[in-house]
Specification:
The complex is a heterodimer of chains A (582) and B (338).
Chain A (H helix, E strand, L loop, with lengths): L7 E3 L2 H10 L1 H5 L6 H9 L3 H12 L2 H7 L3 H5 L13 H11 L17 E5 L3 H12 L3 E6 L7 H4 L8 H12 L4 E4 L9 H7 L2 E4 L5 E2 L12 E3 H9 L9 E5 L3 H12 L4 E5 L11 H10 L2 E3 L2 E9 L1 E15 L5 E14 L2 E4 L3 E2 L29 E3 L2 H4 L4 H20 L4 E9 L40 H9 L6 E5 L9 H5 L5 E9 L5 E6 L8 E4 L9 H5 L5 E12 L7
Parallel strand pairs in A: 2-3, 2-5, 3-4, 5-16, 7-14, 8-9, 8-14, 9-10
Antiparallel strand pairs in A: 1-17, 6-15, 11-12, 12-13, 17-22, 18-22, 19-20, 19-21
Helix pairs in contact in A: 3-4, 3-7, 3-17, 4-7, 5-7, 7-17, 8-16, 12-13, 13-14
Chain B lengths: L4 E5 L3 H13 L4 E6 L11 H5 L14 H5 L2 E5 L3 E5 L4 E4 L4 E3 L2 E4 L3 E3 L12 E2 L4 H13 L2 E6 L2 H12 L3 E6 L11 H13 L3 E4 L3 E6 L5 E5 L2 E5 L1 E5 L2 E3 L15 E3 L10 E3 L4 E5 L4 E5 L2 H15 L13 E4 L2 E4 L2 H4 L1
Parallel strand pairs in B: 1-2, 1-7, 2-3, 7-19, 9-16, 10-11, 10-16, 11-12, 18-20, 21-23
Antiparallel strand pairs in B: 4-5, 5-6, 8-17, 13-14, 14-15, 20-21, 22-23
Helix pairs in contact in B: 1-7
Amino acid sequence: MFKKADPIQSTRAEDFDYMKVNVPCQEGCPALTNVPAYIRAVYKNDFNLSYNINLEANLFPGVLGRICSRPCESKCRHGEKELGKPVNICYLKRAAADFRGRHVPLENPIHQSVSRKVAIVGAGPAGLAAARDLALSGLSVSVLEAMEKPGGMLRYGIPAFRLPRTILKEEIERILSLGIELTTGVRLGEEITLDGLLGDFNAVLLATGCYVPRQLNIPGERFDSVFSGLRFMMDLNAGQPPRVGKKVLVLGAGFTAFDCARSALRLGAPDVSICLRRTEEDLSVTREEVLEAKREGVRIESLMVAKTILGNGNIRGVEFIRTRPGLPGHGGKREITPIEGSEFILDADTVIVATGQGPEPLALKDKRAGEGMVTVDKGSFRSPVSGLYATGDYVTGPSTVIQAIAAGRNAAAAIFRDMTGRDFLERVVTIEDAVTTDRPRAWDFLPAREIPTLEPIRDRFGKKPKEVELGYPGEQAETESKRCYLCYLHYEIDIKRCIYCRYCIDVAPRDCIKLVKKIMTNENGAISGFEETTVWKEVNGIIIDNSRCIRCGACMEICPVECISVSKVQLTERTIGKSEEP
Amino acid sequence: MKEEHFIIIGMGPSGTQAAFTLRKQAPDARITVMSKDAERAFTPHMLPDYIAGKISEEDLYPYDPSTWDELDIHVRRGQRVTDVNPANGYLLLDHREVLRFAGLILAVGGRPQIPEPFLPYQNLMFTLKTVQDAKRWTRKLREVDSVLVIGGDLTSLAVTKAILHLEKRVFFLINKDAFWPLRYDKELMEEFSNRLSERGVEVIPSGRLKSLFREVNGKIGCQIDNRSLQVGMVGAFLGLAPDIRFLTRSGFSMDRGILVDEYLNTGFEGIYATGDCAQVYHPELRDYWVSIGYENAVTLGRIAAFNLAGCRVQAKVSGESIFKVREVNVNTSWWAEF
């Protein structure tokens, strides 16, 4: 018996280029989560493995399985035209968290202790992600948080009916249990100063997020019943629910606007509308969020922008002006123009302005860091002040949780590199042998499974917040996992052995196998294009276009000379040696 | 050889009228009408009369198939358009055929809308849009003695009349969510209820539908507020949603419909939208509105064709017939008819 070979671990640029094109879900995830691998683990009912694959890349599988903005799903090959709907990747992540064993082993520090100390200001997703990686690398990590509890926007920005606090608490505690020291209730500029931290620690990472609400700068914005969306959610989540009236208008289009609207219903407002500058088509929140908000009774009004909040201390209504979207510009975004003379008034007694937020200015003696705002180099996360770094929303402006996590992890890698002159983690492409897929073709036609939600709707409005999305039952998670094409499988034709019978082309379910005149490669050696031909005498090769291949394996099965092979190619992380005292 | 190729997507009242008008305005143009349905052009507002048994199926089809040939209009039925590229002037069909056009009229109409709160029960609800839907109604009505109608629009009233004509019992549930296309108010509600009651309909005013379920005897159980009800079938008439999903990636501005100006232009040269699928910004009204109803559809179809042929005709608005429903203004003449 031969022992199965260990996977080859490649760091060649051409293999990384291949991954970008051919495993689109993983490339779409800012944290580069190995999506096919964790979906496969769900299929095998190995929920612990699935959870751990997520844990390694994104730290918060239970949290993200509920609230991730799902950039992976918009890239999923199953969602391409003529192939149906994307796999519900996010719900499968949640299934991994829901069904894992209670005692998934904790990560251990992977390096020897490094006698350097790092302070991280802010215990939101970016700060905690950086803390986890730095703690695993062997550094001593202290996290300083202004609020009473850690979690940042996860705890104070997202309502409990979308993210139960028990889930958040458990996943934060898992991170802190790596030996991270957390101090809460300390605010930069009050209990602590940046200059003080720079004196006490070898490095300071700012991950203070964005907590300054963006103003509309329109008359009436300072009336009592005008809330900023962020303040509304923070008060609610801190246990001090704001008082809402009978007719609530929410101005905004993001997750915060939807959270505010759905929360206002739960606080007793009978009539809640979200007012959009653009249209429902342009919303970036998930379709499930829109659907559930509407089912609960939120109205969505579009093509309007607020001009004046009317009233005399108390709000009477809002004067809007209609907008007109222009034709799509570069990047597909349309310019919105107010239509002169189209003013109209909507009655309201409460207005929530949820149009975004920015970072808070910080005081620092060394003005090289920036006037009020610390500026950093985006690649190295370094500020002009030695030892001072910044990451997450503080640097980029409001982003998604998964983007903040990725930014935190990348900043941690940069800090470790600066301190020790080496990396403690590196990405590699693992290549191993595989057998052709065991997915019957019929699985490609399974309908996407919707996630069950709390019914009837009235049960969602009790005194205690109840989670709306209930998660897949086990068998549904398995069924949904079957839909994944497993794009980490790589099919290749050995043209030296190919007899050009073209049976593979005949059985291919899409035009994924091409007779080509010429194959182009980029500077790294990865295939960047090809020139297809239908003229037999021009044919110089035959290739599988892996960006169109749905990994059905039909070509491999029909090949009479067995010149088609399959391997499993994955983008993963590996630790690099043991760090030494610098 | 004919130079210009004009395409009309949709063969409802608006698209049909657009085609006929365009032929008059552009006698030499090549005109193609695309319809995703295999059915012939029919008159949707007459479907309730068909259900009532007052007219035959043949009466639903106003045009002899030879009409199109006589007008030299090419009709392609059962052809689903999957994409439109307005900037480059071509569209793509389901079977990957590419059709080029010099002018395009989008008259894709709408499909029956089930608002989000009613979605869990949609499989138990009958809607009415096509001749096939009307046949389903006819078959089912033979088996049942009572119907719950949820709605408040013209079609729901016309179908109610049809059911009464067949001597079946009608329960009519109206509430804020179901009342379409008029703005709900107490005065209107009372008048509406009285008129229905006079005709022998049992009106359930302001009721909140809590659940629908199939009973073991095959009937439909309804829980409306605290009242339980058993009926033979349930009809839902909750307005139309434009059938424009296939245009999502096309670059058109879309909201409740395809956004157009008062000349029904989409913002792309030579491309117009008309009928139920058009959402018009009108400077006179200083707001957006959509039109519903047969007469409006025909009128807008004619205007779109005039403008595509080079005229400059504005869609007219009449303040009295425009109502705001579910965040959108609706132009309708049906209330006067009722």
